[in-house]
């Protein structure tokens, strides 16, 4: 189809129930954080939140600790409030670089949390028109839809949002689909999160301002369970583990790149992982592993950088994995050069509280064709 350009709608389910479930529990033992109001050791006063520093958090910089409590908190706002004495440790004014100790009491204004939350604006994508057949194909990619939200199975190669270099994007396709509906005037879709262009899987949109605010609050408080699958080169150091290392964007040859960073400007990034299976392909191709990933944070290229940092780059990710990321692709029967190289990363599942019903809602995307093909090789 002309509107599809370089991506393909179409999914292939994993062929083995063993790989699909692998005995992994729904939440896989990952502790999900529900924001500062539900954490032990937190008290509320009139307009102020006070929180006790836990034993495992001692010697952490104050600014970095605050960003863990209030996701998306700008460094500039922290500095401003510290100068004004609005953020205090044990009642005293301190610097952003102050190192916290166990049992310290950190206080800040309640308005700090709301200041970091921005309700997504209505989408302003390029207006396009879809034929009835194209509308039907896009409709098949809807994983869930109700009066509050719509979840789409985004194929790899399709940008979530349009830009000067993007002929087609998911937001433009969705707007075109809504425009073709009789109830189009009532729909105001808002993007709640993003996926890289090369990543396939679940993307969530809100259809009303109220649903957008509720959805963004869940992302901010980290109450949404996010689950990814990645097929990587090599074998991780353990069967389960966590990469807790801040990230920062840096300019590089060929564009912007994300890297591990310890500076105050770096953003907290936490990824939990579990190895599902490993397969030795050949002496030349080496070993590959299927990992299940549970990101607590949602930084740009977070999973790609974190996995490369432990020696297991995602297959197809030359930007962060170098040559090792392409080594196994020929043995898997997948393109290993040019613009058709797949990134074997799947945004597999989101579990959230439905803005429409208040009940738990699980949204799951099946593997895209290249990923499903690689899964079959892992079963051999």
Question: What are the key terms here?
Answer:
380 residues; alpha+beta; Structural Genomics Hypothetical 15.5 Kd Protein In mrcA-pckA Intergenic Region, Chain A; Pseudouridine synthase; 10-stranded mixed β-sheet; 4-stranded antiparallel β-sheet; 16 strands; globular; disordered N terminus
Structure description:
It contains ten helices and 16 strands. By secondary structure, it is of the alpha+beta class. Strand 11 and strand 12 form a beta hairpin. The protein starts with 16 loop residues before the first helix and ends with a helix.
List the helices and strands and how they pair.
Blueprint lengths: L16 H5 L20 E4 L2 E5 L9 H8 L5 H9 L4 E2 L15 E5 L1 H5 L16 H8 L2 E4 L3 E6 L15 H10 L10 E2 L8 E7 L2 H13 L3 E9 L6 E5 L2 E6 L2 E6 L9 E13 L3 E10 L6 H8 L8 H4 L23 E9 L6 E5 L4 H11 L1
Parallel strand pairs: 8-15
Antiparallel strand pairs: 1-2, 2-4, 3-4, 5-6, 6-8, 7-8, 9-14, 9-15, 10-13, 11-12, 13-14, 15-16
In brief:
This protein is of the alpha+beta class. The chain has helices spanning 17-21, 62-69, 75-83, 111-115, 132-139, 170-179, 209-221, 302-309, 318-321, 369-379; strands at residues 42-45, 48-52, 88-89, 105-109, 142-145, 149-154, 190-191, 200-206, 225-233, 240-244, 247-252, 255-260, 270-282, 286-295, 345-353, 360-364. Strands 5, 6, 7, 8, 9, 10, 13, 14, 15 and 16 form a ten-stranded mixed β-sheet that branches. A four-stranded antiparallel β-sheet has the order 1-2-4-3. A two-stranded antiparallel sheet has the order 11-12.
């Amino acid at each position: 189809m002309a509107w599809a350009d370089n991506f393909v709608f179409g999914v292939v389910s994993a062929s083995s129930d063993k790989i699909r479930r692998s005995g992994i529990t729904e939440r896989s033992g990952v502790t999900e954080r529900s924001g500062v109001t539900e954490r032990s050791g937190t008290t509320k006063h009139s307009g102020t939140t006070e929180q006790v520093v836990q034993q495992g958090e001692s010697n952490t910089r104050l600014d970095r600790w605050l960003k863990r409590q209030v996701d998306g908190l700008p460094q500039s706002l922290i500095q401003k409030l510290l100068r004004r004495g609005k953020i205090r440790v044990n009642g005293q004014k301190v610097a952003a670089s102050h190192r916290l100790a166990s049992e310290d009491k950190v206080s800040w204004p309640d308005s700090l949390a709301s200041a970091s939350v921005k309700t997504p604006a209505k989408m302003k994508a390029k207006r396009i028109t879809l034929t009835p057949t194209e509308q039907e194909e896009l409709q098949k990619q809807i994983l869930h839809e109700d009066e509050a939200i719509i979840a789409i199975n985004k194929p790899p190669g399709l940008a979530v949002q349009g830009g000067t270099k993007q002929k087609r994007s998911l937001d433009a396709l969705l707007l075109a689909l809504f425009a073709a509906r009789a109830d189009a005037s009532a729909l105001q879709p808002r993007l709640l999160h993003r996926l890289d262009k090369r990543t396939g899987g679940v993307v969530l949109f809100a259809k009303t301002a109220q649903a957008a605010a509720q959805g963004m609050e869940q992302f901010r408080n980290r109450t949404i369970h996010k689950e990814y699958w990645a097929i990587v080169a090599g074998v991780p150091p353990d069967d389960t583990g966590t990469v807790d290392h801040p990230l920062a964007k840096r300019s590089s040859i060929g564009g912007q790149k994300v890297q591990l960073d310890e500076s105050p400007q770096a953003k907290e990034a936490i990824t939990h992982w579990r190895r599902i299976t490993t397969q030795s392909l050949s002496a030349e191709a080496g070993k590959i592993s299927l990992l299940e990933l549970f990101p607590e944070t949602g930084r740009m290229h977070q999973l790609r950088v974190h996995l490369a940092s432990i020696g297991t780059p995602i297959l197809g990710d030359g930007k962060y994995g170098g040559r090792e990321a392409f080594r196994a692709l020929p043995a898997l029967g997948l393109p290993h050069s040019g613009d058709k190289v797949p990134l074997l990363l799947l945004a597999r599942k989101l579990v959230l509280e439905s803005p429409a019903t208040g009940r738990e809602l699980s949204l799951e995307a099946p593997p895209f064709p290249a990923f499903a093909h690689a899964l079959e090789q892992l079963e051999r």
